[in-house]
Amino acid sequence: MKGVSRIDDSPIARWWWSVDHASLGLIAALMMIGVVLLFAAGPGAAMRLQIDNSFHFPLRQIFFIAPALAVIVIMSALTPLQARRAGAVLFGLMFASLLAALLFAPEINGAKRWFAFGPFSFQPSEFLKPGFVIVAAWMLAEGARQPRFPGAVIACGLFAVCAGLLALQPDYGQAGLLTMVFMAMYFVSGGGLLLLTVVATIAFGLFAAGYFFSPHLAARVDAFLNPGEGEAYQVDKALEAIANGGFAGRADAAAPVKFSLPDAQTDFIFAVAAEEYGMILCALIITLFMALVVRAFVKAGALKSVFAQTAVCGLASLIGLQSLINIGVNLRALPAKGMTLPFISYGGSSLIAAALTVGLILALTRRQSLADRRKDVMP
Fold first, then answer.
1. pLDDT, tens digit, for every residue of 121-135?
2. Where are the domains of the chain?
């Protein structure tokens, strides 16, 4: 930040010289790519949804970027102890909101996931995930520090309840993502094989129940296993867009598939990137996500707190695995799932939740002064 001296002792200066600049740069690059792609995908989506303003989606995304940046700065300025407390409060609020969504939210496309507030919508599950990671990491760390404390059992219980609530919405994709993230955290914290097996069994049970009792999930799995049968229009169009883009992409007039691609501005924006700018931009997007996740893991390895290590690994896994699932769906490597590409897909809840996640990563990996470390002791 130009004009901020290293000898300046103001809060802004202390934050700037202690936060990870490389991670901030990676996040900013992903946000800018998202806006550019929404200018490409937005007009077609607006036309399909009969919205008069062709640039409705990119302009709204630019509006959402301001609060997202504010969330990143505020969260990353917290000490690890403050971040843990904020995560616990967030988890409590979002857990209550998730319960309320199941009871009172309107049913949209067979699912109760969103609250509508005028022109805006709010999805509690997006914010539940980082809060859960913080609380689960706290419990796992306490269990490692105090052998008599049932931290792992509490963490597994919280996971089972949260995954069950997500499955009831139904949102099996988010439940599966939460499962993979928790298993990664449990492994990093040094957990035993028995509880890890229990977690895997719970996840498999939820998925099996969903396949047999949810026609929507069964249709998507069947379409993935049998590409020539079932409802696979979205994925077929995404693959057509990717093939049309080739290596270097097409000019706007030669990239017509995005105009007929459902959810081009959200779940299938990676296919728009492929058609507009080719494999070059796709490789860049994947590289940026890999760099962000790997850097977080490297930073976590240098931390001394079990809580901070486990939480950073969980939060980084959340970003990395969600990106992997979204890209995998676009490439038909995974069954179709309504999951956004962090920082790039359109959506206020998705963008701000991703900002909250990376803000917590930056807070837990930020360099602290000796005075801060003495008053912010973490297990």
1. 788 889 999 999 999
2. 22-369
